[in-house]
Amino acid sequence: MTDPTGPDHSGSRRRFLQLTGAGVAASPWLAACATAAPSAIPARAMGMPWPDWGTLPEEVPPPPKPGSVGVAVVGLGGYAIGKALPALATAEGTHVAAVVSGNPEKAAKVAAAYGVPEDAVYSYETFAQIANDDRVEAVYIVLPTGLHAEWTELAFAAGKHVICEKPMALNAGECARMIAASEAANRKLMIAYRCHFEPYNLKATELMRAGAVGAIRSIETANNYSANRAHNPSNDWRLVKALAGGGPLEDYGLYGLQAALYLSGEVPVSVRGWTEQVPNDPRFTEVFSTVKAEITFPSGAVTKLVTSYNADNLNMVKVTGSDGILLMEPATYYDGNAMKLLKGGTEEVLMPGDSNLQFSRMVQHFAEAIRTGAAIKTPGEMGLRDIRLVEAIHRSAAMGEVVAV
Ligand code: NAD
Domain holding 96: CATH number? Predict the structure, then answer.
């Protein structure tokens, strides 16, 4: 599992799931899923059971403040229930105005917990009617990656602003379509890159700009865990090519790729990629098990990126400079991130803030951009840039040579 166990996720949750196989025993449907081929999961929006993580609030959130942006959440999986919905309910400028799901029982339960009226519960079939729902100004897409482009376009067609989960889409063509739809609708498009709002990653970026390690020579990133299909359908879409693309790089390695870009402050000039797909392993019939890349920046700095669904847990960023080293491990968890600066034989531990704030800060930024017309910090163009790099890494691996970008 990845995100499901998520790359994005806190390590403790991932370890729990790997050890327990939570969820399977309770459901014959899940047990059947666990033995089905990955491609048995259709690449269309459909109802799924209660996810393997995420809890509902004990009390219905207070009524929204005046001017709050009403958001419809599309897809009620682990990340939506665990992080996206709580963020929308916590941020000053947003509230949960509607939910969209293919599982009516799950949708009703989530709606009741967030005080969403029954007539603001939509299915994938009735979603188009949201165009007439003035309570909803924006849509948060929390579906598997292969459904991001289609549902972002549908949301823009309904006249709403869109915040879409990472990775933006399966390929650059889909990303370009999403940007064009945003422009045609004259509505905002934001990619939910939470680390741009996370205190450790913000502080690390500030330190790099201030020259805290001197000239950056190399950035090493690792985003690894061992996927396990035997838990929940949440784990399985990440192993289906039509829903997840190449697999680990788009899903978890994207954090390392992004970190390399915002820490270096540079855009790569070339990439060299390598992929592995373990033979005779039912997890990897459609996606890569491991992706490695060497990314070269104009300054000469190099990133060495590793991301795997077939390795022990690691979430690490290390920046080596002429005058020091910045080590972040874990670097991009939901919480519990750790960072230290090593210089001249001394070690400074940095604790710049509460990582949990990243979720509400991110949706607050989205709301403020909608209200003020300000530019989005993580726009569709950034998502497109990253997917182009992902494609270049995969292309390089297939060709066996360096690819200029
Ligand atoms: P999940 O499997 O837990 O939830 C996906 C949900 O999408 C399902 O519960 C279901 O409601 C819906 N869905 C509709 N059609 C589906 C289909 N054909 N197959 C599977 N699900 C379908 O996954 P998740 O971990 O919540 O991931 C959802 C999105 O959120 C992905 O884009 C993922 O990359 C992103 N994500 C981001 C973070 C982060 O830290 N930013 C973390 C986890 C996931």
Answer: 3.40.50.720
Nearest-CA residue for ligand 1 atom 5 is: 77
Q: Which two tokens stand for residue 47?
A: 């109802």
Pocket test for ligand 1, best of 30, 73, 231, 237 (most atoms within 8 A of CB): 237
What's the pLDDT at 236?
85
Q: What is the per-residue burial (b if ≥16 Cβ within 10 Å, else e) of 138-148? A: bbbbbbbbbbb
Domain count, the chain: 2
110 and 234 in one domain?
Answer: no
Report the amino acid identity of residue 178: M
Ligand 1 contact via 165 beta carbon (within 6 Å) = yes
pLDDT digits (tens, 9 = 90+) for 253-268: 999 999 999 999 999 9
Q: How far is the CA of 237 from the centre of ligand 1 (A)?
A: 8
Q: What is the pLDDT of residue 233?
A: 59
Structural domain span for residue 313:
196-353+386-404
SS3 (DSSP) at 338: coil
pLDDT given at position 232? 59
Instruction: Looking at the structure, tell me whether residues 189 and 241 fall in a common domain.
Output: no
Looking at the CA of residue 145, tell me the nearest atom of ligand 1.
32
What is the pLDDT, as a whole number, of residue 139?
99
Q: Is 357 within 8 Å of 235 (Cβ atoms)?
A: no
Q: What is the pLDDT of residue 29?
A: 28
Residues with pLDDT less than 70, the chain: 1-39, 229-235
- Which CATH number belongs to the domain containing residue 340 in this structure? 3.30.360.10
